[in-house]
Design goal:
deaminase activity, Ado/ade_deaminase, TIM Barrel, two-stranded antiparallel ribbon, single chain, binds zinc ion, 46% helix, metal-binding, alpha/beta, metal ion binding
Protein backbone atom coordinates (compact mmCIF):
# COMPACT_ATOMS: atom_id res chain seq x y z
CA UNK A 1 0.00 0.00 0.00
CA UNK A 2 1.25 3.50 -0.85
CA UNK A 3 2.18 5.68 2.09
CA UNK A 4 -0.18 8.67 2.10
CA UNK A 5 1.40 12.10 2.37
CA UNK A 6 -1.59 13.53 4.19
CA UNK A 7 -4.26 12.05 6.42
CA UNK A 8 -6.96 13.07 8.84
CA UNK A 9 -5.81 12.44 12.39
CA UNK A 10 -7.72 9.60 14.01
CA UNK A 11 -7.26 11.06 17.48
CA UNK A 12 -9.22 14.11 16.31
CA UNK A 13 -12.17 12.01 15.10
CA UNK A 14 -14.92 12.36 17.73
CA UNK A 15 -16.14 8.97 18.87
CA UNK A 16 -17.62 7.00 21.76
CA UNK A 17 -16.10 4.02 23.55
CA UNK A 18 -18.66 1.38 24.48
CA UNK A 19 -16.58 -1.67 25.36
CA UNK A 20 -14.07 -1.14 28.15
CA UNK A 21 -13.94 -3.08 31.41
CA UNK A 22 -13.15 -1.24 34.62
CA UNK A 23 -10.12 -3.27 35.78
CA UNK A 24 -8.96 -3.88 32.21
CA UNK A 25 -8.82 -0.13 31.57
CA UNK A 26 -5.94 0.34 34.02
CA UNK A 27 -2.71 1.75 32.63
CA UNK A 28 0.13 -0.73 32.86
CA UNK A 29 2.47 1.62 34.79
CA UNK A 30 -0.37 2.24 37.27
CA UNK A 31 -0.71 -1.51 37.85
CA UNK A 32 3.01 -1.82 38.54
CA UNK A 33 3.03 1.23 40.80
CA UNK A 34 -0.03 0.23 42.85
CA UNK A 35 1.21 -3.35 43.21
CA UNK A 36 4.49 -2.02 44.66
CA UNK A 37 2.63 0.35 46.97
CA UNK A 38 0.40 -2.42 48.31
CA UNK A 39 3.18 -5.05 48.43
CA UNK A 40 1.52 -7.30 45.83
CA UNK A 41 3.74 -9.60 43.81
CA UNK A 42 3.01 -9.48 40.07
CA UNK A 43 3.81 -12.41 37.76
CA UNK A 44 6.35 -11.82 34.95
CA UNK A 45 3.51 -11.77 32.40
CA UNK A 46 2.37 -8.51 34.02
CA UNK A 47 5.83 -6.97 34.39
CA UNK A 48 8.77 -7.69 32.03
CA UNK A 49 6.75 -9.86 29.68
CA UNK A 50 3.83 -7.42 29.41
CA UNK A 51 1.54 -7.55 27.48
CA UNK A 52 1.00 -11.25 28.22
CA UNK A 53 0.62 -13.77 25.41
CA UNK A 54 -2.85 -15.19 25.85
CA UNK A 55 -5.04 -17.69 24.13
CA UNK A 56 -8.51 -18.08 25.57
CA UNK A 57 -10.07 -20.36 23.01
CA UNK A 58 -9.63 -23.27 25.39
CA UNK A 59 -10.56 -23.50 29.07
CA UNK A 60 -6.96 -23.43 30.27
CA UNK A 61 -6.19 -20.27 28.33
CA UNK A 62 -9.30 -18.54 29.65
CA UNK A 63 -8.39 -19.58 33.18
CA UNK A 64 -4.97 -17.94 32.76
CA UNK A 65 -6.58 -14.76 31.42
CA UNK A 66 -8.95 -14.68 34.40
CA UNK A 67 -6.10 -15.28 36.85
CA UNK A 68 -4.13 -12.31 35.50
CA UNK A 69 -7.31 -10.26 35.62
CA UNK A 70 -7.89 -11.18 39.29
CA UNK A 71 -4.32 -10.20 40.18
CA UNK A 72 -4.86 -6.84 38.47
CA UNK A 73 -8.11 -6.36 40.38
CA UNK A 74 -6.32 -7.00 43.67
CA UNK A 75 -4.14 -3.87 43.36
CA UNK A 76 -7.21 -1.63 43.65
CA UNK A 77 -7.56 -1.43 47.41
CA UNK A 78 -8.54 2.09 48.38
CA UNK A 79 -11.19 4.52 47.15
CA UNK A 80 -8.38 6.77 45.84
CA UNK A 81 -7.21 3.89 43.62
CA UNK A 82 -10.68 3.82 42.04
CA UNK A 83 -10.65 7.60 41.50
CA UNK A 84 -7.22 7.35 39.92
CA UNK A 85 -8.21 4.50 37.61
CA UNK A 86 -11.27 6.31 36.27
CA UNK A 87 -9.44 9.63 35.92
CA UNK A 88 -6.65 8.00 33.92
CA UNK A 89 -9.14 6.05 31.79
CA UNK A 90 -10.94 9.31 30.97
CA UNK A 91 -7.62 11.03 30.17
CA UNK A 92 -6.81 8.21 27.75
CA UNK A 93 -10.24 8.62 26.16
CA UNK A 94 -9.68 12.33 25.70
CA UNK A 95 -6.31 11.62 24.03
CA UNK A 96 -8.11 9.24 21.64
CA UNK A 97 -10.76 11.80 20.69
CA UNK A 98 -13.49 9.99 22.58
CA UNK A 99 -16.20 12.18 24.08
CA UNK A 100 -18.20 9.43 25.76
CA UNK A 101 -16.92 6.47 27.74
CA UNK A 102 -19.29 3.74 28.80
CA UNK A 103 -17.29 1.68 31.26
CA UNK A 104 -18.32 -1.78 32.47
CA UNK A 105 -18.32 -2.36 36.19
CA UNK A 106 -19.23 -5.38 38.27
CA UNK A 107 -19.46 -4.07 41.82
CA UNK A 108 -19.55 -7.65 43.21
CA UNK A 109 -15.80 -8.00 42.62
CA UNK A 110 -15.09 -5.09 44.99
CA UNK A 111 -18.04 -5.24 47.36
CA UNK A 112 -16.14 -6.82 50.26
CA UNK A 113 -13.53 -4.03 50.12
CA UNK A 114 -15.85 -1.06 49.83
CA UNK A 115 -18.67 -1.91 52.19
CA UNK A 116 -21.15 -3.73 50.00
CA UNK A 117 -22.65 -3.55 46.53
CA UNK A 118 -24.49 -0.25 46.86
CA UNK A 119 -21.57 1.62 48.42
CA UNK A 120 -19.24 0.20 45.75
CA UNK A 121 -21.48 1.31 42.89
CA UNK A 122 -21.81 4.76 44.49
CA UNK A 123 -18.02 4.96 44.73
CA UNK A 124 -17.73 4.12 41.01
CA UNK A 125 -20.38 6.72 40.16
CA UNK A 126 -18.69 9.41 42.20
CA UNK A 127 -15.30 8.59 40.68
CA UNK A 128 -16.88 8.72 37.19
CA UNK A 129 -18.29 12.20 37.92
CA UNK A 130 -14.92 13.38 39.21
CA UNK A 131 -13.16 12.01 36.08
CA UNK A 132 -15.73 13.80 33.93
CA UNK A 133 -15.12 17.11 35.69
CA UNK A 134 -11.34 16.79 35.35
CA UNK A 135 -11.19 15.71 31.72
CA UNK A 136 -14.36 16.90 29.98
CA UNK A 137 -14.99 13.32 28.79
CA UNK A 138 -18.48 12.16 29.73
CA UNK A 139 -18.58 8.86 31.56
CA UNK A 140 -21.56 6.49 31.87
CA UNK A 141 -21.56 3.16 33.69
CA UNK A 142 -22.60 -0.22 32.41
CA UNK A 143 -23.37 -2.52 35.32
CA UNK A 144 -22.40 -5.99 34.12
CA UNK A 145 -23.24 -9.36 35.64
CA UNK A 146 -20.88 -12.32 35.63
CA UNK A 147 -22.34 -15.24 33.66
CA UNK A 148 -20.35 -17.81 35.63
CA UNK A 149 -22.32 -16.87 38.74
CA UNK A 150 -25.92 -17.70 39.57
CA UNK A 151 -28.64 -15.87 37.56
CA UNK A 152 -30.10 -14.67 40.89
CA UNK A 153 -26.88 -12.69 41.50
CA UNK A 154 -27.47 -11.02 38.15
CA UNK A 155 -30.98 -10.08 39.24
CA UNK A 156 -29.59 -8.46 42.39
CA UNK A 157 -27.25 -6.39 40.20
CA UNK A 158 -30.07 -5.49 37.80
CA UNK A 159 -32.18 -4.17 40.69
CA UNK A 160 -29.21 -2.18 41.93
CA UNK A 161 -28.55 -0.78 38.43
CA UNK A 162 -32.25 0.15 38.17
CA UNK A 163 -31.94 2.43 41.19
CA UNK A 164 -29.28 4.47 39.38
CA UNK A 165 -30.87 4.51 35.91
CA UNK A 166 -30.76 8.11 34.73
CA UNK A 167 -28.24 8.90 37.46
CA UNK A 168 -25.05 7.64 35.85
CA UNK A 169 -25.91 4.03 35.00
CA UNK A 170 -26.95 3.73 31.35
CA UNK A 171 -26.68 0.07 30.40
CA UNK A 172 -26.67 -3.50 31.68
CA UNK A 173 -24.20 -6.16 30.52
CA UNK A 174 -23.22 -9.79 30.93
CA UNK A 175 -19.62 -10.93 30.73
CA UNK A 176 -17.08 -13.70 31.40
CA UNK A 177 -16.70 -17.11 29.77
CA UNK A 178 -19.49 -17.72 27.22
CA UNK A 179 -18.91 -21.46 27.50
CA UNK A 180 -20.19 -21.31 31.06
CA UNK A 181 -23.56 -19.65 31.54
CA UNK A 182 -25.79 -19.24 28.49
CA UNK A 183 -27.40 -15.87 27.83
CA UNK A 184 -30.93 -17.28 28.09
CA UNK A 185 -30.43 -18.05 31.79
CA UNK A 186 -30.23 -14.31 32.46
CA UNK A 187 -33.53 -13.29 30.93
CA UNK A 188 -34.99 -12.20 34.29
CA UNK A 189 -32.13 -9.84 35.10
CA UNK A 190 -32.24 -8.24 31.67
CA UNK A 191 -36.01 -7.78 31.88
CA UNK A 192 -35.54 -5.77 35.09
CA UNK A 193 -32.81 -3.67 33.47
CA UNK A 194 -34.72 -2.99 30.24
CA UNK A 195 -37.88 -1.97 32.10
CA UNK A 196 -35.78 0.59 33.92
CA UNK A 197 -34.75 2.07 30.57
CA UNK A 198 -31.22 0.67 30.58
CA UNK A 199 -29.68 -0.50 27.32
CA UNK A 200 -29.23 -4.26 27.05
CA UNK A 201 -25.61 -5.00 26.14
CA UNK A 202 -24.56 -8.60 26.85
CA UNK A 203 -21.36 -10.25 25.57
CA UNK A 204 -21.94 -12.91 22.90
CA UNK A 205 -20.41 -14.34 19.74
CA UNK A 206 -16.83 -14.14 20.95
CA UNK A 207 -15.87 -17.56 22.31
CA UNK A 208 -19.13 -19.12 21.11
CA UNK A 209 -20.76 -19.03 17.71
CA UNK A 210 -24.07 -17.76 16.27
CA UNK A 211 -26.29 -19.46 18.84
CA UNK A 212 -24.92 -17.24 21.60
CA UNK A 213 -25.64 -14.15 19.50
CA UNK A 214 -29.19 -15.34 18.74
CA UNK A 215 -29.87 -15.73 22.46
CA UNK A 216 -28.68 -12.17 23.10
CA UNK A 217 -31.03 -10.90 20.38
CA UNK A 218 -34.09 -13.03 21.02
CA UNK A 219 -34.02 -13.60 24.78
CA UNK A 220 -32.15 -10.58 26.16
CA UNK A 221 -33.52 -8.16 23.53
CA UNK A 222 -30.04 -6.74 23.02
CA UNK A 223 -29.55 -3.15 21.89
CA UNK A 224 -25.86 -3.92 21.56
CA UNK A 225 -23.75 -7.06 21.75
CA UNK A 226 -20.26 -7.21 23.24
CA UNK A 227 -18.12 -8.59 20.39
CA UNK A 228 -20.77 -10.52 18.39
CA UNK A 229 -18.18 -11.02 15.64
CA UNK A 230 -18.87 -14.74 15.26
CA UNK A 231 -22.34 -13.87 13.97
CA UNK A 232 -20.63 -13.84 10.55
CA UNK A 233 -20.72 -17.63 10.64
CA UNK A 234 -24.46 -17.33 9.87
CA UNK A 235 -25.24 -14.81 7.08
CA UNK A 236 -28.98 -14.82 7.89
CA UNK A 237 -28.15 -13.78 11.45
CA UNK A 238 -25.99 -10.93 10.16
CA UNK A 239 -28.99 -9.73 8.11
CA UNK A 240 -31.19 -9.80 11.21
CA UNK A 241 -28.67 -7.82 13.25
CA UNK A 242 -28.52 -5.21 10.49
CA UNK A 243 -32.32 -5.05 10.17
CA UNK A 244 -32.76 -4.53 13.90
CA UNK A 245 -29.94 -2.01 14.05
CA UNK A 246 -28.21 -3.79 16.93
CA UNK A 247 -24.70 -2.42 17.47
CA UNK A 248 -21.81 -4.87 17.72
CA UNK A 249 -18.98 -3.74 19.99
CA UNK A 250 -16.04 -5.04 17.97
CA UNK A 251 -12.67 -5.13 19.74
CA UNK A 252 -9.93 -5.95 17.21
CA UNK A 253 -6.84 -6.26 19.43
CA UNK A 254 -8.81 -8.21 22.04
CA UNK A 255 -10.03 -10.72 19.44
CA UNK A 256 -6.49 -11.35 18.27
CA UNK A 257 -5.07 -11.17 21.81
CA UNK A 258 -7.42 -13.93 22.97
CA UNK A 259 -7.01 -16.03 19.84
CA UNK A 260 -10.57 -15.62 18.51
CA UNK A 261 -8.78 -14.73 15.24
CA UNK A 262 -5.16 -15.55 14.41
CA UNK A 263 -4.37 -12.14 12.95
CA UNK A 264 -5.94 -8.73 12.38
CA UNK A 265 -6.50 -9.44 8.70
CA UNK A 266 -9.02 -12.15 9.60
CA UNK A 267 -11.31 -9.81 11.57
CA UNK A 268 -14.76 -9.77 9.94
CA UNK A 269 -15.14 -6.00 10.37
CA UNK A 270 -15.45 -5.36 6.63
CA UNK A 271 -18.07 -8.10 6.21
CA UNK A 272 -20.19 -6.71 9.06
CA UNK A 273 -19.83 -3.10 7.91
CA UNK A 274 -20.73 -3.88 4.30
CA UNK A 275 -23.78 -5.84 5.49
CA UNK A 276 -25.06 -2.70 7.22
CA UNK A 277 -24.39 -3.86 10.79
CA UNK A 278 -23.74 -0.95 13.18
CA UNK A 279 -20.28 -1.40 14.70
CA UNK A 280 -18.64 0.43 17.60
CA UNK A 281 -14.91 -0.22 17.92
CA UNK A 282 -13.65 -0.89 21.44
CA UNK A 283 -10.59 -2.11 23.34
CA UNK A 284 -12.07 -4.52 25.93
CA UNK A 285 -9.03 -4.70 28.28
CA UNK A 286 -6.07 -2.58 27.18
CA UNK A 287 -4.31 -3.58 30.42
CA UNK A 288 -4.00 -7.11 29.08
CA UNK A 289 -3.89 -6.51 25.33
CA UNK A 290 -1.91 -3.26 25.03
CA UNK A 291 -3.43 -0.99 22.36
CA UNK A 292 -6.02 1.66 23.21
CA UNK A 293 -8.96 3.10 21.29
CA UNK A 294 -7.28 5.13 18.58
CA UNK A 295 -5.29 2.03 17.58
CA UNK A 296 -8.51 0.19 16.81
CA UNK A 297 -9.43 2.86 14.24
CA UNK A 298 -5.87 2.73 12.90
CA UNK A 299 -6.25 -1.02 12.36
CA UNK A 300 -9.50 -0.39 10.46
CA UNK A 301 -7.69 2.14 8.27
CA UNK A 302 -4.32 0.49 7.77
CA UNK A 303 -5.07 -3.24 7.95
CA UNK A 304 -8.66 -3.41 6.76
CA UNK A 305 -8.59 -0.55 4.25
CA UNK A 306 -11.35 1.66 5.68
CA UNK A 307 -11.52 5.05 3.95
CA UNK A 308 -12.01 8.29 5.88
CA UNK A 309 -15.78 8.44 5.10
CA UNK A 310 -16.04 4.85 6.37
CA UNK A 311 -14.03 5.63 9.51
CA UNK A 312 -16.33 8.61 10.11
CA UNK A 313 -19.29 6.25 9.80
CA UNK A 314 -17.73 3.88 12.35
CA UNK A 315 -17.39 6.82 14.72
CA UNK A 316 -21.03 7.85 14.11
CA UNK A 317 -22.19 4.30 14.81
CA UNK A 318 -20.31 4.29 18.12
CA UNK A 319 -22.12 7.47 19.11
CA UNK A 320 -25.54 6.28 17.93
CA UNK A 321 -25.19 2.99 19.82
CA UNK A 322 -24.17 4.69 23.05
CA UNK A 323 -26.19 5.57 26.11
CA UNK A 324 -24.99 9.19 25.89
CA UNK A 325 -27.59 11.95 26.35
CA UNK A 326 -29.12 13.38 23.18
CA UNK A 327 -27.33 16.75 23.41
CA UNK A 328 -23.92 15.07 23.60
CA UNK A 329 -24.76 12.70 20.74
CA UNK A 330 -25.63 15.70 18.55
CA UNK A 331 -22.42 17.46 19.49
CA UNK A 332 -20.26 14.40 18.74
CA UNK A 333 -22.04 13.68 15.44
CA UNK A 334 -21.54 17.29 14.33
CA UNK A 335 -17.86 16.90 15.26
CA UNK A 336 -17.59 13.81 13.05
CA UNK A 337 -19.03 15.76 10.09
CA UNK A 338 -16.56 18.58 10.73
CA UNK A 339 -13.66 16.09 10.87
CA UNK A 340 -14.62 14.67 7.50
CA UNK A 341 -15.21 18.09 5.96
CA UNK A 342 -11.75 19.36 6.97
CA UNK A 343 -8.72 18.85 4.72
CA UNK A 344 -6.32 16.06 5.66
CA UNK A 345 -3.17 17.25 7.44
CA UNK A 346 0.35 16.51 6.18
CA UNK A 347 1.71 13.31 7.73
CA UNK A 348 4.89 13.63 9.76
CA UNK A 349 5.97 13.42 13.33
ZN1 LIG B 1 -15.53 -7.56 27.18
Amino acid sequence: METPTSARRLDRLPKAHLHLHFTGSMRHPTLVELAAEHGIHLPQALVEEWPPRLRATDERGWFRFQRLYDIARSVLRRPEDVYRLLREAAEDERAAGSGWLEIQVDPSGYASLFDGLTATLELFLDAARAAERETGVHVGLMVAANRTRHPLDAKVLARLARQYAGRGVVSFGLNNDERRGRALEFEGAFRIARRAGLLSAPHGGELQGPRSVRECLDVLDADRIGHGVRAVEDPRLVERIAERGVTLEVCPTSNVGLGVYDDLGQLPLRTLFDAGVPVALGTDDPLLFGPRLVEQYRIAREVLGFSDPELAELARMSVRGSGAPESLRKELLAGVDAWLAADPEPVGD
